[in-house]
Amino acid sequence: MRCRVEKSKISGQIVCPPNKSYTHRATFLASLAGENSRVNNALFSADTKATVEACTKFGAELEVQGSSIIVRDPIKIGTDVTDINTENSGTTIRIAAGIASLFSHEITLTGDSSLQQRPMQPLLDALSSIGAQCKSDDGKPPIKIKGKILGGEVKIPGNLSSQFISALLIVAPLTEKGISLSIEGNLVSKPYLDATIATMRKFGVSVQTLIPYKRYNVTPQKYKSSVFTVPIDFSSLALLLSSAVLNGEEVLVKGSLGDLPQGDEVFIDILEHLGVSLTVNEEEIRIKSPEKLKGGKFDLSNSPDLLPPLAILALKTSGQIEIVNVKHARLKETDRIATVSRELVKLGIKVQEKEDGLILEQSGHLTGTELNSENDHRLFMAFCIAGMFVGDCTVTDPQSVKVSYPNFIEEMNRLGANIEIQ
To answer: Which residues of 198-219 are buried (b: 16+ CB within 10 A; e: fewer)?
Structure first.
């Protein structure tokens, strides 16, 4: 499948979708707490549905009411589950792997072909060090895990994914000894770890921070019933803001920003640095874009999902956009550095690909082309937005948006975009 994208201008109001990362975390923790715990304003997408299915496989009884998920009965450690398919969701398989290590029988976790290319070995090594038996042919899914972990001292590298650390923290209070966690090297995507700790706190479990992003201690505790409201998703918001900057006339993005940590909120600061005027309050954002954007150098080590929406802004800059310290973006649904580099060159952007980032510059000779999103939801949306600016483009894999923003195409077209599935 592919989409035809013509040059478009958008205007009007759009509501930003709920946060995918918080929906994952809150659903898992509500399922561990039970007792009618509720997740309000949940995102219902392919990835979060994979988490709901995983919790159900682990024995939880979940009920969907409107935009809420209610957990009637919690996850039951020991439930006769043998296999869990987490589809395309890296967050799901990593947290589910941690929970599987609490079971005393073997559980197989796998996913689609893209997920089977994503690393798991650091988490498997960490779980093995505290009593799990873990098997994998190459450190990637499918994986087999048999517990029961008892807890204790754990060391894990921080340079590949913060999701490994999140998985360990989430299961730590359910172990006999608790877990004392040491992170080796520099941790990437730090705000996602903050998000995990904040969500755990909402469900009654405290994490002792000994050295931020280096050492944590979690004692044996119980998750408590809670009501958790998911904020808007700044990763999706960044794409909407990029679309408004490139193609917007009068665009108002609505949604409660909330007070929970989100690394991608730095995109507002990035846009201001580029010369965009934003009016931000708790419920909405208004955007006024200049004729030409400034350039700049941006460190995305804590916000790798901002790579696509920032890279496409090179279509409108008068200087260079340099993106650095985001090597871990190569380990997403696809190698986002390589794919963005390869595809944006087709549009006429000058691109220098680095091991840990990109340098992008507008050539002055933009042209429509076919853009291959490699079935990556964030790349598909970014390429559609770029196509709306350039015109006469096709973008592959529209079905990929079901992962995080199922009604993206309909919402863009409602605002005036010309995106047609062929």
So the answer is: bbbebbebebeeeeebeebebb
